[in-house]
């Protein structure tokens, strides 16, 4: 690599890194507790619900009525299940209108066997603040897209860093840190070493970060594509009036349609994940990977009959896979600890990068002052 090319790559690495560093520090710091969000939530809300001998689960319609009775004038729009983490429990999202903003949601966690209200989680607290800062900085879709742009700059800084590191290490041992040299060189070697050790992880987390920021775009594509095709026969029909068909029967029909999968989410008619005419029962697999993927089964909200069921398109599945991968949510606590270690190493990389830039800047200013003094002396 000639000097001119090296300078160009160095310029790319310096400026892309500097522009995104502050935001990457924010993402790394907020991401650290989010890696262990399941464990933290479990400690905060430890509700062990045991089945009562021989007793059956209550009818879902009755459970939904209990949730609505806690919030008069509001109605259920989503029901969630996490059978592995929170068995025998269902979480209802209750709002005034199906298209209400998620911050207007009231959540009711209910024991499926007894109908007992276990908790009423709120959109607040430490983990909620960390999640919002990490996903959109409390700025909604513009915040997501901005962080996605920072992710792209981060990826460019990784590529440029690899290009610069390769030729340098031809003359040195891999992983060397020149402890007998200046402090600045020690920090440079530490920065380079941690960068190359974490490069694969940084690339994975950086790219999944960009993909995750496009979640609203992906939802829009799915709504206009597959969902529109699945609900096309109902396009010119009026939405059902009065009481909807049974939620309980809708879930049973979906389970019979796809017996190898478990129910994960039910979206009521009028929500963004279905039409005004259908329940959407989202089923998930029972392996580590397939449990992250969802398959929609549409149920006519007037007749209770299944009208369609399809696997999600590739771009939606890519999003589903990238979301847990971003937080290391695939291999249990061991992988999460590894993710946390790499996260801390990344924070050190970012801090050393800032230090090197300030040190270099200070050195350049000092050199210019010396040159000016010499010129005046002449």
UniProtKB/TrEMBL annotation:
Signal sequence segment: none
The protein's UniProt keywords, in alphabetical order, are: Membrane, Transmembrane, Transmembrane helix
The record, for Pfam families, names: PepSY_TM
Cross-referenced PANTHER family: BLL7967 PROTEIN, IRON-REGULATED INNER MEMBRANE PROTEIN-RELATED
The residue ranges crossing the membrane are 12-36, 145-169, 190-211, 337-358
Its domain of life?
Bacteria
For this protein's source organism, the top of the classification is: Bacteria, Pseudomonadati, Bacteroidota, Flavobacteriia, Flavobacteriales
Q: Which InterPro entries match?
A: PepSY-ass_TM (IPR005625)
Q: What is this protein called?
A: PepSY domain-containing protein
């Amino acid at each position: 690599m000639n000097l001119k090319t090296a300078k160009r790559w160095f310029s790319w690495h310096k400026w892309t890194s500097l522009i995104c560093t502050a935001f990457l520090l924010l993402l790394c710091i907020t991401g650290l507790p989010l890696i262990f969000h399941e464990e933290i939530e479990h400690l905060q809300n430890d509700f062990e619900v045991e089945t009562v001998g021989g007793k059956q689960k209550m009818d879902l319609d009755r459970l939904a009525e209990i949730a609505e009775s806690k919030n008069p004038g509001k109605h259920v729009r989503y029901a969630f299940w996490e059978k592995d983490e929170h068995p025998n429990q269902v979480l209802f999202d209750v709002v005034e209108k199906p298209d209400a903003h998620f911050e207007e949601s009231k959540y009711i966690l209910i024991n499926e066997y007894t109908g007992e209200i276990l908790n009423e989680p709120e959109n607040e607290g430490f983990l909620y603040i960390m999640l919002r800062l990490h996903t959109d900085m409390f700025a909604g879709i513009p915040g997501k897209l901005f962080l996605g742009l920072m992710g792209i700059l981060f990826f460019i800084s990784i590529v440029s860093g690899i290009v610069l590191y390769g030729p340098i290490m031809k003359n040195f041992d891999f992983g060397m840190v020149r402890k007998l040299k200046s402090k600045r060189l020690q920090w440079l070697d530490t920065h380079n070493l941690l960068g190359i050790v974490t490069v694969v992880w940084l690339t994975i987390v950086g790219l999944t970060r960009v993909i995750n920021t496009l979640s609203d775009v992906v939802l829009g594509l799915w709504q206009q594509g597959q969902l529109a095709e699945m609900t096309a026969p109902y396009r010119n029909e009026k939405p059902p009036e009065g009481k909807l068909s049974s939620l309980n029967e809708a879930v049973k029909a979906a389970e019979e349609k796809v017996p190898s999968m478990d129910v994960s989410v039910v979206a009521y008619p009028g929500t963004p994940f279905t039409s005004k005419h259908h329940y959407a029962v989202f089923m998930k697999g029972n392996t580590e990977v397939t449990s992250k993927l969802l398959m929609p089964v549409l149920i006519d909200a007037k007749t209770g009959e299944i009208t369609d069921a399809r696997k999600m398109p590739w771009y939606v599945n890519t999003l589903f896979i990238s979301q847990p991968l971003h937080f290391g949510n695939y291999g249990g606590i061991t992988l999460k600890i590894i993710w946390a270690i790499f996260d801390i190493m990344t924070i050190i990389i970012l801090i050393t990068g800032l230090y090197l830039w300030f040190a270099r800047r200070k050195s350049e200013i000092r050199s210019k002052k010396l040159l000016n003094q010499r010129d005046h002396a002449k």
